[in-house]
Amino acid sequence: MCMVSSLLLFFSNSYLQLLFGRFLVGMSCGTAIVITPLFINEITPVEWRGAMGSMNQVSINLGILLTQSLALKYADSYNWRWLLFAGSVVAVVNLLVWLKVDESPRWLLDHGFVAEAEVALFKLRPGTYQQAKQEIQDWQSSHAQNRDPESSTEAHSPPKLWQYVTDASYKKPRTVILTILTCQQFCGINSIIFYGVKVIGKILPDYSIQINFAISILNVVVTLIASAIIDHVGRRPLLLASTTIMVAMSLLISVGLTMSVSFLLVVATFVYIAAFAIGLGPIPFLIIGELSYPQDAATAQSFGTVCNWLATFIVGYLFPIGQGLMGGYVFTIFAAIAALFATYVYKRVPETKGKATYSDVWAGY
């Protein structure tokens, strides 16, 4: 779908073709952003889940950086189509790689293909076939123990999205997922990602593009650092540190904009991006599966993605309006939301590091 949509955009000669191509791009990206974290969570050992889950965000940031790099050369009225064509090249490479990838062993197990699950897991693990078989048996035991005691059904089957949204038995993970995935956006990251050139350009018009490009590089580097430490430090400490620093930096960005202090604005923006990349960037999508029953994870991932993109739309649409009305003071709103979110994380979000079962994660909550 991504390949087709990119080619459609490349060859488009009308506004309707562009709209349809963008619609297909959205469908393909929406599918990928649900499936990728879920697949990583299903195939990765518990002790590596944080590092491997963070690679999803690293890849997204690398994609943004690649696009911005190409835009430096091709973003003009003559060459813009080649930017869109690049998406089809990436899609073809991705398709060829996926042809060599086996189905998730956990999915195979959940659908009754035990022998196939053992073979698939054996290919993913460095040990013997017997060790892979034992891990499958451990999954089966964990699955049997992982029924929700609040559920009214004897068997815990994967819920439909509407059931997940409305059924009280999913309240704990649903509420935390909703809060984390929406607050990731309501803390204001895309005010910088979407409008960084415009925001910084008000004070440093000659350097805004270079600064925005440097921000993307920083985002990649710090997310890589996060992937290296997340399984040692834990999710909660990184989320708390990330959002707390973002509170302070949002206030300093506001001061830098309103008082036209260019040095303060640039430094605060870079620290803000680094703080986001160390915690609030990579953790939300990887933690969804860790907060959920294995059989609920796909629905929970879909729910979290919908929440996240609705919040992205709200911030993307309202930020220019808010900036027009409030100027630099609009960042004080992001600071307030980040402060409230940090408090919520401290009180309500369980640590998932090293915990293999739903009951382990939610013990004490």
CATH class category name: Mainly Alpha
CATH structural architecture: Up-down Bundle
CATH fold-level topology: Growth Hormone, Chain: A
The largest β sheet comes out as: none
Subcellular location: Membrane
Protein name: YBR241C-like protein
Membrane topology: Multi-pass membrane protein
Organism: Saccharomyces cerevisiae x Saccharomyces kudriavzevii (strain VIN7)
Task: Please give a structural write-up.
- This protein has 365 residues and is an all-alpha fold.
- It has a single domain (2-101, 163-362), classed as MFS general substrate transporter like domains (Growth Hormone, Chain: A), CATH 1.20.1250.20.
- Helix content is 78%, strand content 0%.
- The protein has helices at 2-11, 15-43, 49-74, 80-98, 105-110, 114-124, 129-145, 161-166, 171-186, 189-201, 208-233, 235-258, 262-280, 283-291, 297-326, 330-348, 358-362.
- Helix 3 packs antiparallel against helix 14.
- The longest helix is centred in the C-terminal third of the chain and has 30 residues, at 297-326.
- Residues 1-353 form the Major facilitator superfamily (MFS) profile domain.
- It is found in: Membrane.
- Belongs to the major facilitator superfamily. Sugar transporter (TC 2.A.1.1) family.
- The chain crosses the membrane at residues 20-40, 52-74, 80-99, 176-197, 209-230, 237-257, 263-288, 300-319, 325-346.
